[in-house]
Design goal:
This protein is of the alpha/beta class and 234 residues long. 39% of the residues lie in helices and 20% in strands. Helix 6 packs parallel to helix 8.
Length: 234
């Protein structure tokens, strides 16, 4: 069983079957996190913002990449606050939102020592605002925060049940990997995470578990060390 876990939740998960905020989907994410939390596991969460805005898409319409990326960071703050509220109000779990960009009215600024102290006190820490810098994805932010808080593993929770050799939505013969090395992910150009995030995990020997968060008990089973999804490691 893992003692400290960083869960990266894709923004598209928060959008449910569309865009914006799907509160049923958010409640399901919160419920699964609650199941893992009850195992007395210290949990950090990084949430994407793709359900609200994608920086790369905005460029097509004349929005500067740097501006679009900052808009994306603000979107992650919105998602983080939604998740925080559901975790606290519905599941009665103490939480803190720490942001890499200053939004002092609604979140603390990210301070590594304070984040670790919150985890030790049994609070779930939701890291918002990405890395605080443009040109970096929330996957990279998740890898960075996982390393900073000394997480045992990073769980990438998506709508797909693992890593495949090609897109399973487009190809019926796509093959799922039970386990794969960091180097293979990079060499085969598997679009699990961006190269910066994978390289960061590889250099710091941080294992990554990719799973479908909407499959019953997946987060709990991941924390227990059971076989789910695809494990990426050295």
């Amino acid at each position: 069983m893992y003692k400290r876990v960083l869960i990266k939740v894709s923004g598209e998960v928060f959008g449910g079957k569309g865009n914006g905020l799907d509160y049923e989907a958010i409640s399901e994410v919160a419920r699964q996190i609650h199941e893992a939390y009850e195992l007395i596991t210290e949990i950090g969460v990084v949430v994407g913002g793709g359900n609200i805005i994608r920086g790369v898409d905005s460029e097509k319409y004349g929005v500067l990449r740097t501006t679009a990326d900052y808009m994306g960071m603000l979107a992650t703050v919105i998602n983080s606050l939604a998740l925080q509220s559901v975790l606290e109000e519905k599941f009665h779990i103490p939480t803190r939102v720490q942001s890499a960009i200053q939004v002092s009215s609604v979140a603390e600024s990210f301070i590594r020592r304070r984040a670790i102290r919150h985890l030790e006190k049994g609070r779930i820490v939701i890291f918002a605002g990405g890395t605080g810098n443009p040109y970096f994805s929330t996957d990279t932010a998740a890898a960075l925060r996982a390393i900073e808080i000394n997480a045992d593993i990073m769980v990438k929770a998506t709508k797909v049940d693992g890593v495949y050799d090609k897109d399973p939505k487009k190809f019926k013969d796509a093959v799922k990997y039970e386990e794969i090395r960091y180097s293979e992910v990079i060499e085969k150009k598997l679009r699990v995470m961006d190269t910066t995030a994978i390289t960061l995990c590889m250099e710091n020997n941080l294992p990554v578990l990719v799973l479908n968060i909407f499959e019953e008990g997946n987060i709990k089973n991941a924390v227990l060390g059971k076989k789910v999804g695809t494990l990426i490691r050295a």
